[in-house]
Amino acid sequence: MQEKHSPAPWRAVHSGKEKPIYIYSAYSEADKEKFPYSNGRLIAAVFNLSSYSQQINAALMAKAPELFEAAEAAETALRLLRGESSEEKEAFINELGSLIHEVNILKKTEGVKHES
User: Fold this and answer.
1) pLDDT tens-digit profile of 19-78?
2) DSSP H or E segment with residue 23
3) Residue 23's domain spans which residues?
4) Using CA of residue 3, residue 7, residue 13, residue 15, what is the dihedral sign?
5) Are β-strands 10-14 and 21-25 bridged in parallel, bridged antiparallel, or unpaired?
6) Are 58 and 112 in contact (CB under 8 A)?
7) Which of 114, 103, 107 shows the shortest CA–CA distance to 70?
8) The pLDDT of residue 2 is above 60
9) How far is it, in rounded angstroms, from Cα 85 to Cα 112?
């Protein structure tokens, strides 16, 4: 089965001052066995346009899987708001409340985790 995108979570790894920040995805279970000592699968390198924009861009890119899930949830919300059963709407409202809580936590997270 083909995945929609590289497995989450994605991580931004700072490689040092004046160097790119690398974005890695998690490995699939099969890849973990093949590469047990690796950081994960390299997705992107974010170069230093300015120190601030580099960190913000890398943090945003590392959250791509979560943003994709939020977009899918918004699509489901639109479908439900256009006319589904009240039980489905109630279940979705609860799920949406949890998702909004998670997004607010992500928004409060600042910068990039520095890892070696």
Assistant:
1) 888 888 887 777 777 877 777 888 888 887 777 788 888 888 888 888 888 888 888 777
2) strand 21-25
3) 1-62
4) negative
5) antiparallel
6) yes
7) 103
8) no
9) 42
Rounded Cα distance between 67 and 18, Å, is 28
Q: Do 16 and 58 fall within a single domain?
A: yes
Whole-number pLDDT of residue 112: 42
Q: What per-residue confidence (pLDDT) applies to 46? A: 87
Are residue 2 and residue 46 in the same domain, yes or no?
A: yes
Amino acid at 51: S
User: Are 11 and 23 contacting, i.e. CB atoms less than 8 angstroms apart?
Assistant: yes
Same domain, 21 and 2: yes
pTM above 0.70, yes or no: no
For residue 60, give the nearest of 104, 6, 111, 16 by alpha carbon: 111
More confident residue, 48 or 85: 48
Those residues with Cβ within 8 angstroms of residue 114's Cβ, 6 or more apart along the chain or in another chain: 14
| More confident call, 88 vs 60 | 60
Residues 1 and 41 in one domain: yes
Q: Is 80 exposed, middle or buried (0-12, 13-18, 19+ CB in 10 A)?
A: middle
